Amino acid sequence: MNALLRIEGLNITPARSPERKLVNNVSLSLARGKTTCIVGESGSGKSLTALSVMQLLSPQLHMQGKVFFQGQDISQLNESAMQHLRGRQMGMIFQEPMTSLNPVLTIGFQIGEPLQTHLGLKGSALKQKVADLLQQVGIDPGRANSYPDELSGGQRQRVMIAMSIACEPALLIADEPTTALDVTVQAQILRLLDELKNRMQMAMLFITHDFGVVADIADEVIVMFRGEIVETGSVSQVLQSPQHPYTKALLACVPDAEGKKVLQPMNYGWLIPA
Amino acid sequence: MPDCILQAHHLKKTYTQRTGALGLAGHQIHALDDVSLQLKRGTTLAIVGESGSGKSTLARGILRLLPLDSGEVIFDGKNFLALDKSALRSARRDIQMIFQDPFASLNPRMRVGDIIGEGLVIHSIGDARQRQNMVIQILEKVGLHADDTQKYPHQFSGGQRQRIGIARALILQPKLVICDEPVSALDVSVQAQILLLLKQLQQEMGLSYLFITHDLRVVRHIADEVLVMQKGKVIEQGSVESIYNAPQQNYTRQLLNAIPGQARRAATA
Known about the structure:
The structure holds two protein chains of two kinds. By secondary structure, chain A is of the alpha/beta class. Chain A contains ten helices and ten strands.
């Protein structure tokens, strides 16, 4: 088993009330060149799971469990060791491109930052690499001196992507990267991420609540409900023959573009023991 | 001529954006550029478009929450834009609105009973006891309970808050409800419940909906007619069937192709 990332027995609880499990005994593994989607509703623990990989959890939360990255247990690494991994080996993209970019720095500078920090690039080599990255994500390299507010939402998300893939990380974590975008822009960004994943053979951990997006981008799917994994499988298994009653009920809620489906209200009947 | 609850003709709204040194220069942005629509009584017209297409400006313009530059709005046979202040206030009883964000659109310091009953007070309907009964009736109709009247909005989940917003809109028994992205902020499980509730209430109360959304999957399940907007202009309009099965305009096709969940199907087909 050559998993790039393996999480074993992850538990996350508020530091003050350890009996409340926000994430309960989650184990998963990701392979290179594959996209794994974590799907779930708000509060299902999908973002916490992703943040714990990078050790970006709030100090008010307590995490237990092991995280193996390239064979090494990184759950106990100190902050400076983590900083070598973050941005270098693991990239991350967030939902809101405006709040995750610094408004007073040019996008070229921000894309160049991880290259300076991790690869020590300078001067014209740095400039050239930034231009390459902009080109790769479909932004005119001449825009390197623009500020984030001069760009559209989709362009900002492209900048975020350029930053996160700058050092060619082995793992890319994308937390609802298209939720704030218009549908046509969403489709473009999904295509771009898929292309980059294939070209760079990254493992992508993609968090979403949208089953349409899952169908478009996922190889593997993990369904979370109230902090626990209720179902995992390949995208076709999970979408076409879901096993768990929660997955079935959730899929029945999703409106389809053909309008053939009769929408069902969410059914939680299975939660009540017979 | 079909029985229309709402007709809008040639609505125009232009904003001037200040640019240049000291904002002396400026250019015009056409938020609404000659927009016309018709909504048949008891049906749902969906307004679809991306951000900046003018769909929310259209809703606000129709309600006169925003002054329009020109155009005509006929609501229930009356020229809505020509009404004077007091006539407007009483006419507004028949048009209610449901907002996107159930967190931001409910006053956090008011009890749910007061939020829902406020419209009754403003329009001097009934005495205190009658109002109380009407509030309880509508709460139960949207799937909440009589004792919820004493609670505050923060004690409810997102879906429940949206039900409160719906109860507030429907207590005056309006003829037209403008829904501005009413399910966009909700989880998909809750979204289905709210869509089904809106449909059920439409049948029970004979409501007409102007339903603003960017989600074409939702449109398919709620709308009878669709109007596609881009940059303030109406690109295409027609029945749901015709728009989805035979879109005439490129932009509509682009929107339909961008609905997530089709890329794989297209690739394997």
